[in-house]
Amino acid sequence: MPQADWQRTVWCGEVSEEMAGRNVTINGWVQRVRDHGSLVFVDVRDRTGVVQVTCDAARAPEAFAQARELRSEYVVSVRGTVRRRAPDAVNPKMKTGAVEIEPSRVLVLSAAKTPPFYIEENVDADELVRLRYRYLDLRRPDMQRNLVLRHRFVKAVRDWFDAHGFYEIETPMLTRSTPEGARDFLVPSRLQPGSFYALPQSPQLFKQLLMVAGLERYVQIVRCFRDEDLRADRQPEFTQIDVEMSFVTAEDVMTQIEDMIATALRAVGKDVTTPFPRLDFATAMARYGSDKPDLRFGLPIVDVTGIAAQTEFGVFREAVARGGVVRAIVVPPGAALSRKDLDGLAEEARSRGAKGLAWLAFEADGLRGPVAKFVGGAAAALQERLEAPAGSVAVFVADEEAVAAEALGHLRLVLGRRLNLTKDAGDALLWVTDFPMFEWNAHEGRWEARHHPFTSPVEEDLPLLETDPARVRAQAYDLVWNGVEIGGGSIRIHRRDVQERVFRCLGFTKEEAQAKFGFLLDAFEYGVPPHGGIAFGLDRLVMMVAGAESIREVIAFPKTARGGDPLTGAPAPVDPRQLEELGLRVEAGGPAARAAGRGRNGTA
């Protein structure tokens, strides 16, 4: 087939001084046109960058006339000669700022309407408008950089897994709905009326079956679906890096995975140090009030329950008498917290369930603050326990342990932002381990799996399954980056008897467990290796690498916070004949979404 007259010979962003004197053809979109009378400057953009086309009425009158008709976002092909710019015309801010193209021909391949927003960096446009015209939004350089970053990161991930003996294996998109986790998206079966497929929340059961099958090392970059309430870092359809390995311990998984993460991050220009720190769940909650602590700054939570009980402050003494705790955060000298600031912190604490906030200022000549007169002889011990230097302020919460952790964990992050403690702090990755196996669902009056029901309990906690489920620890681990959970996994149960005990703890009868998970339990009769794995939210990972505020910034065609797609109008009604074929009927004013079934952790 003959070459088209307009086909490119060089990308816009690759035009260089070494090409001076060469005839080239570029293709792209018109970024802008500047008409200076006898000279017209046209900036032409493709995915590699922008190059200037300089049209001189005296030297190339036909190309000059063509250039004057151009408008922003026209698709053009320009043929011409590369030449160096005059020294005073060099633009050091442009990759191609030392050269320009003198055209012999300008060809319009496609005209364009005026876009609803400027195609430029950091555009100030409503997000709904950007999503409605996503094909235009994706032309912007920052969005294209995000997608290129995603591509390179995923390639580095795949290369690492291939080099370490993992097989990439696809698992079904149409599967069976199973309990636990978030609400499923259901797909009605035309061939079996009244029955439904579910879109997978994760390939959890299938990847465990692949371990039963003897594949030993599995990975998949996989689409997953969860019908849950959305937020900035959550979408109804998302992508996971899904991993499973046989004959491994939790430490084996974490060591391998942190090498993969470090390697992939280096491939996109971000260097991190391994091994990542390990922090067990109980310590994380006590010290940072969060199971995903941001370790880029200090401000640890300090327990002062024993000392607080010796003071004359009634709030402290009463909390301790009820079995609660008194915990504090020390704000370092120089923070200059005003009374208004402290009142604001008290409101923040109350928003997270605390009854209030007490504070003490440690001055060189003694204590100051509403609580100071009640501390008495405990002052020295309190200051020593808090390691509070002169000029610092301590804020206290006296309440149930969970409330104190939630409130102070939130205050720690608020203070970290207000005091700008993360500026130039680098990145902090860590593993959080030994999570509780179960959490109590007061609404339903039963235990639920905190991770998922196939997570293995810590071996020494097995006797507690029937007697004290609250104390059972899971062989589970989360990877946290700058206070954001980017992945979670666990060692799985590989013995049928243990799996059945866990199901009983979760309230499943033997018959219910067999009905829901029989295919997995049956497989467990045929020799199952010890195995474990992990899953990462790829969208969230790339969001962190890109420094974006939302995963919508690193997904080509995302949904809104309400699960809609402004570009296509999805979700939308369908032809009644389609519903009839499926044996379905839409009732007017159908039931509202129920709280039951909303997602919890849901990690793999």
Detailed description of the structure:
- Helix 4 crosses helix 6, helix 7 crosses helix 13 and helix 10 packs across helix 13.
- This protein is α+β, with helices and mostly antiparallel strands.
- A hairpin with a 2-residue loop joins strand 2 and strand 3.
- It is 28% helix and 24% strand.
- The strands form five sheets. The chain has an eight-stranded mixed β-sheet, sandwiched between helices. A five-stranded antiparallel β-sheet has the order 3-2-1-4-5.
- It is built from 17 helices and 22 strands.
- It folds into three domains: 99 residues, Nucleic acid-binding proteins (OB fold (Dihydrolipoamide Acetyltransferase, E2P), Beta Barrel); 269 residues, 2-Layer Sandwich (BirA Bifunctional Protein, domain 2); 127 residues, GAD-like domain (Gyrase A, domain 2, 2-Layer Sandwich).
